[in-house]
Amino acid sequence: MKSIKNISTxxxxxxxxxxxxxxxxSVSQFGTWMxxxxxxxxxxxxxxxxxxxxxxxxxxxxxxxxxxxxxxxAADRYNRYKIVNIxxxxxxxxATLLAILVMTKHYVIWEILALSVVLGIINAYDIPAxxxxxxxxxxxxxxxxxxxxxSAAMASVAKLLGPALxxxxxxxxxxxxxxxxxxxxxGGVMLSISLMKIPKTSKQKTSNRPQKNVFAELAExxxxxxxxxxxxxxxxxxxxxxxxVVPYDTLxxxxxxxxxxxxxxxxxxxxxxxxxxxxxxxxxxxxxxxEAPLRKVLLWSTVVLGIGLICFSRASNFSLAMLFAxxxxxxxxxxxxxxxxxxxxxxxSEMRGRAISILLxxxxxxxxxxxxxxGSISERIGxxxxxxxxxIAGLIIAAAFAKILSKKKEDKKLPLQENFVAEEDLMEAx
Length: 430
Hints:
This protein has a single domain (about 5-420), classed as Up-down Bundle (Growth Hormone, Chain: A). About 80% of the residues lie in helices and about 0% in strands. The chain is built from 17 helices and no strands. The protein has helices spanning about 15-45, 50-75, 80-105, 110-130, 135, 145-170, 175-195, 200-205, 215-225, 230-245, 250-260, 265-285, 295-315, 320-345, 350-380, 385-405, 415-420.
């Protein structure tokens, strides 16, 4: 009988450091999704405004848009393990302060928004450093595709179970407990790093190259993507989907409370079914063959996302709507993870940190703007019609980029495992 470590999908677990990374991040991801669910529910309960939901998401993600590029430079320059430890401590402090404010009932809207901004700045430095660690914690580079997909699958499981658990705790104990659990979860990442067997070279700066001005290094990153247009066009496509399609989650609380006449648990159920689809997407990607046409996967995942949103927006039966939520979750995570793998595998090792940070900048820049747009439009035409338009936008984007991406790099069909020649990775996602 084969050990799970000998199955290609789970090959990354043969690396002790990656196993520690995976366990620590799993604990933290559950707490993160519990806090996200609780924050948007508290805001919607206070305001009953879809626009304020969009503003809340904007407050957390837009600072990441502004600072993610600098976070990428920091990840290329400095010890990534130390950066991650610092960001975990800062995130723990943010969640604890949020819990104190809510539990003492001394909170107002601007305080929640301000703390969301703080978290966005922390994430701008945390995500590039944390994601670029994956290349270092995987001992065999052939296992890097497995590591990327398993990390995305772990995030999807957290997205499945975290909101459901948060919905139960919200109804039974209140939002403050969700925030405290999240604060405690950051200790899992710090503990996992302390248990890793880190080589001495990794404890030093990640590069011995002469350090330039931060803005000069950022300019190098953008110049590199212009030169490597096969990567650049993928990021451009993600920009459009992040602006017009992916911010559909802004409207989920409205569907839970208004369309389906539910409560916090209903919100948790919808988010969890989206998570089920996300798990399916990551399992599919983890099982791809070596010579997988990643750009076709990217396009088709966008189509699945669009169809899922269109059908969900028209569904009046809750059970049927959950089926379409699964499709939306599948398409959304498959799209992001595929883009992540393309950038990770095709960017050169010395530019990978900046390529990831530019990808993050694109996502974190467009998502909050999209959330504001979606929230504002839904107050005028209603959540179902807005979601319908987002699904149609996804199909249009896929059609528009089909010809462009088919010309880029796909004809080479490089084996997935040969693509991963150095170090690093990116999120989730999100």
